[in-house]
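This part of the workshop introduces the protein records we will be handling. An example says more than a description, so a record of this kind follows.
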Amino acid sequence: MAHRRCVSSTSSELDLSSSSSLRTSPTPPLEISSSSTEPLKGIKPKRKSSGSDDDKSSKGLRSQKEDNEEPNDPDHTQDLAEMHLSEVQPIITAIRVTDLALGLRRIPAGFHAVIRADDVEYETSNISVNVDQPVVEWHERIALPREPCFKVRISVYASFELGPMLCHGELLRTFEISVGELMDRSEKSHPIIFQPKQQEVVSACTSLFLTVEQQLPDQHDAAILCPLTTPTSRNIDALALRTDAGHRLLARYRRAQNSRDLEQSINHFEHASDICPVDHPCRPAALFNLASAKLVSCQAEGRYLDLDVPVSLFEGALELRPTGHPDRTVMQLHLAVALLSRFAKRGFQTDADAAKELLSEVVNVCHANTHIHRAAAIAMETCALHSARSINANDVRQEWHAPSMLPLSPNQLSNQAQRCLERDDPSALDEVISLHNDALGYYNTGHACRVQLLSNLALMLQTRFEHRGNDTDLDQAIVLQMESLALCPVGHTDRSASLNNLATQLSTRFDHRGNSEDLDEAIALYREALALRPVGHTDRSMSLNNLAVHLSSRFRHRGNGEDLDQAIALSREALVLCPVGHKDRSVPLNNLANRLSSRFYHRGNGEDLDQAIALNREALALCPVGHTDRSMSLNNLTLQLSSRFHHRGKGEDLDQAIALSREALALLPVGHTDRFMTLNNLANRLSSRFDHRGNGKDLDQAIALQTESLSLLPVGHTYRSVSLNNLANQLSSRFDHRGNGEDLDQAIALYREALALCPVGHTDRSLSLNNLALQLSYRFHRRGNGEDLDQAIALNREALALRPVGHTDRSVSLTNLANRLFSRFDHRANSEDLDEAIALQREALALRPVGHTDRSMSLNNLANLLPSRFDLRHDRKDLDESRENLLCALTLLTQHDPRRSMVHASIANVYLSFHRSELDGTGAGSNTDSLNAAMHHFKAATNIVPASLLSRLRASLSWVRHARQHSHGIQLEAYMTSMQLLDAYMSVTASISSRHNAMKGFPSTLAVDAASCALRSGDVGRAVELLEQGRTIIWTQMTRLRTPLDGLQTRGDHAATLMKTFTDLSSLLDKPHPSHLEGTPRVNVEAEATRYRRIVEDWNGTVEEIRKIEGFSRFLLPPLFSDLQDAARDGPIIMLIASESSCDAIIIPHKQPPTSIQLPTDIQQLAKLLLTFRVAIDKETGHQRALMEALNDLWNNVVGPVVEKLGKLVRLGSRIWWCPTFLFNFLPLHAAREYRTGGMSLSQLYISSYTPSLTALIKARASRDRPTSVPFVAIGQNRPAGVSFTLDAVEPELELVRKLLPPPPTVSFSKITSVDATKSRALCALREHTWFHLACHGTQRFDEPFQSAFLMRDQPLSLLDIVQMDLSQHNFAFLSACETAVGDFSTPDEVIHLAAGLQFAGVRSVVGTLWKVNDDTVQRLVKAFYEKFCEGGPMNPRRAARALHRAVQSLASDVDIPLAQRIVFVHIGI
């Protein structure tokens, strides 16, 4: 039997939850610096900048060969005489090898040999070898098999530990030889000669010779070496195998450079480390091996950020090697090398110092002739050279070419350089540098012009470095400037300029590489330059500023307050030298203000901040509109005003900061180098105002600005990590505000990138740690993965350690760690976590005294923990303190602070704890004072308008939950509030699919539970209103945008303008929301989202204005029952309610009051009945008993009681409409009957139709224009894309429809089938024909119900495509496909299916299917339906229900049609 096949899939629920914590968004201050470079002879100074290089390399794949190679020996003989003295025992008495360390790429601890014979393995002692020791001998005695033909395998290894060995080590040589041949070689003194391994010029172990003696049976030899014993543990055996494999692959990688070998080596060593017990004597070796391989990987791939891993592993191994252990020096040496590698990349002096200390101990302990001593000595020399930072200039110039002609004069060269800088021409820059090089070869050391040439060439090289980022240029510039300085001894007129220039270039290299020694040396040079410019010198102000700038830089790098104090003193003197009226006064004003601001951040003295603001205001006044530095002064002032807002909470400061930031941004158009900073600053100010006042527009704009800022900061930019953190903070805030998971995912990705850019020692690492921990905590609350929470706690602990007592942000880290620990307490119930969390919150509160802007939040945070401890230990003091703290927090927040909502919710929970305990009356729950107080605060939390819609909605749902739990009289108000907030929240959600996903995060039974509550209070009309308001929200949002406003045209010009505005805005919102492809710039995505929300706000404002017009006060408000009752004018409507408390039916007649019936069933029985139906329908023909029993239960428990009441309201044979909710949506109510003799059947009593909502039915009954001819199209697709089979009955079905319809001109019939039935043709046909019949495959997507579709030849015609059409003039649709009237189980009351979608889009009458339908049923029913439908006059969509009813009845006696197929079709609409 052929089916109209359907494709279905399931969906999973989305858990929306959140937690709160504190975040900070640092913004680096902008600083004006006077020229730091002083070129000679008219060269214009260049602005300082910094760059970075990414040194990347790729490794080619090479051929590989196993280490098990055969020895190459010209004296090798194949035919040896066999020995027949079987009683003689051959014994190896000595093993002699040469050049064991030749070509080794690792530093060995020792060497040993392994002999395997007759499945027995012997291992020699592990011998350390000196540098000058070419020969190594072992004198252990090893017994060999007596038979000369037996094979012996001999292997030589380099080991990396002298103590208990984890495994064999790195295999140097291995080969097999017979006992007889071995004895022959021993007798003839023929060693085995080895050739270099493949891909190696030289290889370790060039020859091997074994001395073999024969021992008679009666000779007892107690010195025979015992064979190795088999490991007693399977894990230890696996440990050795893994380690050997790791060594083998690492050695092969060093030869062939195949990165796959290195990856596998690390994998083996990691497995070995995992299975090696912590207390095992070989544990240090396992860590050491893994560390060695990781270090090689970091160096090979240039991943210097990952050097922390091998360093940590080496440190762990060293801790397990106490002083005196033979392997301690090896560990120390490798740890020192790793530290030096990290020092070379990051420039942290602590690494270099630690390495020196380790190397010194190695050199002192080891013999001078050992490999370890030599390696340590070389490392110490390298470290010393690296630290010295001195390069011989003559060595550099050896690479320069000799001049081929006389050079230009120094003045000519200066002029060339000046023009080059002005043109910014790269090729000209290269030429000028070449000319200067030629000139230096001509003007020797004694020439008077050489100083000028050196200085100018250094400047050119620095300029080229700034353009191209080549380190060599910068290093050469420093070398040249050093020579220039050497030619300007004390007393030379140009010495101060040369000092200044060299300091500038060292400072540039510090910015580029981060080596603090460069910064220290630059400061020393600036100090000397300042000393040469005493009071009265024209350049003293510049030197004061330069030294102050770099002392400030060192303060930021190391945090030494003395540097900052000295910088401020220097800046004050520089300002004195630029009195009022001086043309450059704005520069020292800005710089002193920035110093004072930094000291405020460091020490928290508000006077510093006030003074900084006053200075910045004066600086701004000196930069009027049109001044080149105005944007910078604006930025600096905004930073200080913002800081004062955070310090004192004065909103005027923040508003002024935002206004100034907007002006600054307007002065920096797209393409300006400083635009990124101003974008960042304005975004942070707007984000702060959102936190303060809760206006979502501020947050959306902040994200759009910060996204643009980040796009201007490529990888490697100094401020990229700051921008990453700030954008992630703002996305996280929006996730808190709106609950969109995409914002959370994006924030986590940005925080991870930011943390990677802040290695250990970086000043912003604590911030990145805190922020990433917060997002991991969010993910834990959404998904429940405890590993996320543990990782978050570890990150927060590290962050707290980086913010010691006295740090300005310590309270933030304390709060964040406390929040994480409390979450883990909730998750695992470990009281130690709770106690620590409370202690941390108390410390945080102490750091936020009265007057601190965040004191209210600290009070709230501590208060939220105390009830949990009360639940644990029942100490009333905890609850009392909690309530007192929260009430105090509430008084500290202004009336417009969005955080009041959160505090009210916390107070409500504390009062609930009082109520549940025995602390507020005569017994637990007996006194309602605390309960009433809790309900009051829940209500207050939902009414804080500045708070986000999402937070208010969540508070209202808590209110509903607790009001219902305690049967409080306010629960109906709580339900009504929740549904209003849910509707408002959904209205600002852009796309239809995102609305559907958002709905999954809220209780699916909210509307039916509210209606049930209203019924319990006796208000049936209110129950109907609540059902209509809280169901089909997605459809309601769409239909609002298509509301006609004809009545406004006669209300004057203002009303007409409003009508046009409403229509235009609705049209914009009704357009499909663009789906952004992967890779779409985030700037574009954010801009589109912000645009949508702005239009929504304008639309809401227009609606409010329309409601002010007489007669339109309830425009687009939820309808009243008196309006809804009009839906029953053609017959009663039965609304079925399934909630946890009860299952009810409401019968709504047209003129009489509604009637409610409590049904004799409950939600659990309904769920079982639904499952019974689904199983019975799947069984199809021959298994109808279960289906009949299910229909009988449906009659007894649902339909029968309703029919009993209907008999008093409407005559038999009349039409009735079912409006089911929740689980009732999936039951075939129209087919219920009693399966007994004389039993009743609903279809024999009434004609059933369905409607998804009363509003939809009222809209469908609206009068339409009736054309003289019915435009009818039949669309059929028998072979859609992606389907391998054909629906053979489609063509005959469409032809049957054509024949049964009235002929022209009554009906104008069109048909589209086969290759013509494409998606675009079908859409076009649906627009042009108001009556249609669809015969095709149908797909119901339960995961994405709006992607449910009719399958056309090229691509699906989806429900989303349909609802975006205007079908407001359409009359009828017959959907001859599978599952066109079954909705989504995750959001049942949204009624999202193809048939309902057509009705909401405007089609008045729709015939659809509840489950799969086969071709035989379709053919018979279509024939019967259209015969009845076309009887008796013009075609009318109102006759569709009766025609379907009679068609189904005509099939009832046909035994060939299964029962499930006879009841599959349903009617929806008028």
